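Subject: Predicted fold for PTH hydrolase, 134 residues

User T.R. writes:
Posting the sequence so we have a shared reference for the thread.
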Amino acid sequence: VAGLGNYGLRGTRHSVGMEVLDQLARQLAVAEGWRVDKRCCADVALATAHGLELVLLKPRRFMNLNGLSVASAAEIYSLGPGDIYLVHDDLDKALGKVAIKLGGSARGHNGVQSCISALQSNEMTRLRIGIGRP
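User M.O. replies:
I've generated the structure tokens; pasting them so everyone works from the same file.
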């Protein structure tokens, strides 16, 4: 599960994916388990939920390069594009609205496009978090 965003700009609307990952880590009781993984240039926490092993990932790059971290982590943890969930902001959704998208185009989102390019696939499931238009 990758929370897309701009790593150094916490609290901004474009980093909502990372905020969701922080909340998920708290709910799974692994919030103290974040560690820097230099191999994929990301913060990583490992968790288990409902019998599934999860890799929580917050890329330490700007949004348009998040895919490099996601692709490196996929290789390290032997994950295919279909195993990856991207959590990201969506300008076209009202604030707080949430939708799941199963693969397809990036719909103009630079972080998702970076992941599609780096993984050479558009099969990743996306959790789109509405932030509305400013």
